[in-house]
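Researcher: Here's a chain I'd like modeled. Treat it as a single chain, no partners, no ligands.
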Amino acid sequence: MIIIKKCGTTPEIIHALRPKEVFVFGSNLAGIHGAGAAYLAKKWGAFDGRGIGLSGQTYAIPTKDHAISSLSLGDILCHIEDFYSFAQANPQLEFLVTKIGCGLAGYSVKDIAPLFFAEFLTLENISLPHEFIEIIIEKSEGES
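Model: Modeled as a single isolated chain. Structure tokens:
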């Protein structure tokens, strides 16, 4: 059983960020931020040409490749694992994770949510969409 310390819920719509908050969005490896949450991320420091990692008050998790085709779930998982390590190493920041991969990449919440493994719920500096949290808890209880 996973004990949830403080994992918050990401607001459905994010209009502004406080100084230590980071907007986490789905991107493409080409770093073209032309639509969806990636376009919104430009407001807080994401810039074209950088499709992975921290830029300003944003963190890009690739869900599409350089040719703008959707990555496999296995490839997305690798990028999510990198993000988890980054969030662990930066407890001074609060990460607001959006529903990455569930828009332009074409995956469903049921596809993507389990990639955010149960340990995400123990980190105090990560907020996830409520749909992700529900699926993660359901999955972790089923494995107990």
